[in-house]
């Protein structure tokens, strides 16, 4: 039996087992086998990480000039790129996603997040106002940005490196320090980044990693620590609500990107080739484990049957398998627990009267991946808007396709959810595109595209899909404190 890898906590520039005496297994989703052991952080370990991060603010990190700090962050990105193959291997073992996907999106974007936010903070402008005073001499008001302090980062398992660096990148660029609690499912690349921090000379305590779970473990210990000055989290809404409650103690800000039940609206005048290609990606990429993914597809009735037939054809062409198998574009779900959840919705759909257009079960996989957490890509029709599979987030490779006849009605139906993360609109009518996109209650709406991201733009959710906006200068609102200085002339 091959020796298991070990993922240790990274505190104050050193890898350590911690003091809890507890470990937990890390399972490779593609094989269903344990491939590593992670050391669970105790409350004392988390407190030590926060203390190290706080000390680093007043140490060498806090004394760096902006060019010095951003040069180090650029070096981080370059070192990730230099060790591309190591990060790629770690990410695909942890998540099971196809190599083609991780090499195209996860690792390049992980490095790009550091570079983009370093560039953003270098060019961020302040504000200056001249004001009149009763004595006629006037005054100047100008703004300066200061780091918020120690940022607690709780990152998810679906895009581990990409979404972790989406938070750590701007935090460090703005001069903060971080304590990261990665998902217990995917600790590999977050841990590996500790080596990169030391390699490029990031001072000790700036970047810390604590492993564990949520309640009564590292996640809860981190959010409860009063020396954590802000908390950022991507994940499901229930956990986000718990983090928001923890942030209320000490009146600390939170940034939350949470769940979604995202709609796509396909009008009869859409370019059907584009709409099918885009919807196939938005439903099935990363095995449906994307917060921005589509789970409800509303199709105008004149093209409904053709759309369903072509979506079925595309889904059945997807190749399911392990991350290194040739031509694979659909990998496993992250865990047995998550597969059980997704399969329970597959059963519910049938109970609620769905017509299973394709899928609905578990594919037959042979060889080393036969025990992996795979499910079939699945499409349903015949469901109503009040069924659980149309209302509840599933987070798997599946969607319900529902017909519509009226523009105003489909907008109402698309908005009839507690979530408000993203949407997609497919139409060749420019006026209709603007009109419909503007009325959807979401943080981001794509028109004739999906997952097309300019990292300078605001990103976040509405309603129960989140609080706050990140991306470009919008990240500065969370990762910095804006101070006004008034000078009497």
How would you sum up this structure in a few lines?
This protein is α/β, with parallel strands linked by helices and 489 residues long.
Written description of the protein model:
With 489 residues, the protein is of the alpha/beta class. The chain has two domains: 5-258 and 465-488, Aldehyde Dehydrogenase, Chain A, domain 1; 262-454, Aldehyde Dehydrogenase, Chain A, domain 2 (3-Layer(aba) Sandwich). It is 38% helix and 22% strand. It contains 16 helices and 23 strands. The strands form six sheets. The chain has a seven-stranded mixed beta sheet, sandwiched between helices. A six-stranded mixed beta sheet has the order 10-9-8-11-12-22, with helices on both faces. Strand 9, helix 7 (188-200) and strand 10 form a beta-alpha-beta unit. Helix 3 (66-82) runs antiparallel to helix 5 (99-123) and helix 4 (84-95) packs across helix 5. The longest helix has 25 residues, at 99-123. The radius of gyration is 24 Å and the shape is globular. It starts with a strand and ends with a strand.
Describe the SSE topology.
Layout lengths: L4 E3 L1 E3 L2 E3 L6 E6 L4 E7 L3 H15 L2 H4 L2 H17 L1 H12 L3 H25 L4 E4 L7 E9 L2 E5 L5 H14 L3 E5 L6 H13 L6 E3 L8 H7 L5 E5 L2 H12 L5 E4 L4 E5 L5 H13 L9 E7 L3 H13 L19 H16 L3 E4 L19 E4 L6 H4 L6 E7 L2 H9 L3 E2 L1 E5 L3 H10 L4 E4 L14 E2 L2 E2 L8 H4 E9 L1
Parallel strand pairs: 1-5, 8-9, 8-11, 9-10, 11-12, 13-14, 13-19, 14-17, 16-17, 19-20
Antiparallel strand pairs: 2-3, 4-5, 6-7, 7-23, 12-22, 15-16, 18-21
Helix pairs in contact: 3-5, 3-7, 4-5, 5-6, 10-11
